[in-house]
Specification:
The protein contains 8 helices and 5 strands, in the order βαβαααβαβααβα. The chain has a single domain (10-173), classed as 3-Layer(aba) Sandwich (Rossmann fold). By secondary structure, it is α/β, with parallel strands linked by helices.
Length: 184
């Protein structure tokens, strides 16, 4: 199953731990598309971890780099693009995300997100006294932003990467590109 010809790229948005990178790689493999992760692009550019970039340069520099990564992808075709969880925080990124192709929001329950991200101590936004509360607050603040930019939504809770990829394929199969017209 390939993307409809009217779809240039697939852009994955969602909270940290929703499966954007893992599912994105699986979809790219199935469709023989190229895979790019904006966080990995930024890590490679700086030769540092995201946590080290946040620590050394601050969140505003990181958010500028996210915007730059999206701008650099604007002429891309046949990519699956996994974005960082906070990419929707910058209003200037929303039209760039939409211009890249179909935007798919991967969701998961707060409990599942906590289970997935609590294993990784390198998440800069979770370097707080109460990371569980931070997740709750960030999810509440970001969910409307993901919803506003997304063409499609797939819940990843309790599913393997392969099962999520199957659901993505089906969602895109029935998706109408006519709905994609000028969301902004």
């Amino acid at each position: 199953m390939h993307l409809p010809h009217s779809v240039r790229n697939l852009v994955l948005v969602g909270f940290m731990g929703s499966g954007k990178s893992s599912v994105g790689r699986e979809i790219a493999r199935r469709w023989a598309f190229r895979f790019v992760d904006t966080d990995a692009t930024i890590r490679q550019r700086y030769k540092k971890s995201i946590l080290d970039i946040f620590t050394a340069f601050g969140e505003p520099v990181f958010r500028d780099e996210e915007n730059r990564a999206l701008q650099d992808l604007q002429n891309s075709l046949q990519f699956v693009i996994a974005t960082g969880g906070g990419i929707v925080l910058q209003p200037r990124n929303l039209p760039l995300l939409r211009a890249l192709g179909v935007v798919l929001w991967l969701t998961a329950s707060e409990e599942i997100i906590w289970e997935r991200v609590s294993r990784n101590q390198n998440r800069p936004l979770l370097q707080t006294e109460n990371p569980r509360l931070t997740i709750s607050n960030l999810m509440a603040a970001r969910s409307p932003l993901y919803g506003a930019v997304a063409d499609l939504t797939v819940d990843t809770s309790g599913l393997t990467h392969q099962q999520v990829a199957d659901r993505v394929v089906e969602a895109i199969r029935v998706w109408s590109p006519d709905r994609h017209e000028d969301h902004y």
